Amino acid sequence: MAQQIPVDPKARADDPQRDTERDDGTHAVVGDVAYRRLVLVNVVFVGDPGAGDRGWVLIDAGVMGGKGAIKSAAEARFGAGARPAAIVLTHGHFDHVGVLEDLAAEWDVPVYAHALERPYLDGSAAYPTPDPSVGGGLLGRISPLYPTKPVDVSERLLDVPEDGTVPPLPGWRWIHTPGHAPGHMSLWRQADRTLIAGDAFVTVAQESAYAVAVQEPELHGPPMYLTIDWDAARTSVRTLAALEPERVITGHGRPLQGAEMRRALQALAADFDHVAVPRQGRFVEEPLRAEDGSAYRPPR
Are strands 185-189 and 256-257 parallel, antiparallel or unpaired? Predict the structure, then answer.
């Protein structure tokens, strides 16, 4: 069963009072950053409330069937008909690109991602089948049923610049955090130490249906069943912990903030092999590393 680093619930970064004041279907984290949970994954909205058309950015595109929820939250938060300036992806797994093709076409927006995720976003490669033997939870055991085929947004797809900037997000930088996926990236804003970590680490036991339903705050490594390179995943978590963020929004689970969150993140980084890495498993024994191309699989 997956291990965890417990976190005091007082470290939650979402604020029910701010949610009541805005009532736009999102959960506020900090002034211009909010998120919405879609079944089992979070999408993030970056932009000031009322920013209007092209005044905001969507981070990740949720699960299949989530289009209406994303659009309604965006319109309530940013204004009627308000389209984003871009969609930025932490990575291309099925639960982060579920409605990407539809939204990108309808909104007529560019899609930014790390160059190593391009094969999974231009239709040319599929992810490997998940490993159901790790994690011990229901969502882990049924993971071979999850889609692995790529989406194709090649006409709109742009690689993030090598200089670390994110063109539609002034003040933010991308950090390559592979392990869970070859081109996984996290987003960092130094000015207020806000981190959008994607699935580099998460704040819920994503393998467990019960934990996903309850959403008790705790720190975990990346979802086990889809993590293909545990050495890289360890390095990624340690890179992010070294930033000493003030608040983190992850792809799964509640956002966390403050000294208690940093304590837990440092503990995860220090004890990663015990807490996060399965004792055995296909990708533990035979990791797939992006640098030699072995992570790529042809479409099925």
Answer: unpaired
Residue 195 structure tokens: 């981190």
Q: Are 47 and 87 in contact (CB under 8 A)?
A: no
Question: What does pTM read for this prediction?
Answer: 0.94
**DSSP state for residue 226 in the 8-state scheme:** G
Q: How many CB atoms lie within 10 A of CB 18?
A: 15
Mind giving me the DSSP string for 131-151?
-TTSS-SHHHHTGGGS--SPP
Which domains, and CATH codes, for the chain? 5-288 (3.60.15.10)
Q: Give me the pLDDT at residue 9, please.
A: 84
pLDDT tens digit sequence for 145-200: 898 889 999 999 999 999 999 999 999 999 999 999 999 999 999 999 999 999 99
- Residue 15 to residues 35, 69, 201: CA-CA distances in angstroms? 11, 20, 22
For residue range 228-246, what is the model confidence (pLDDT) as tens digits?
A: 999 999 999 999 999 999 9
Residue 45 host element (H or E): strand 41-46
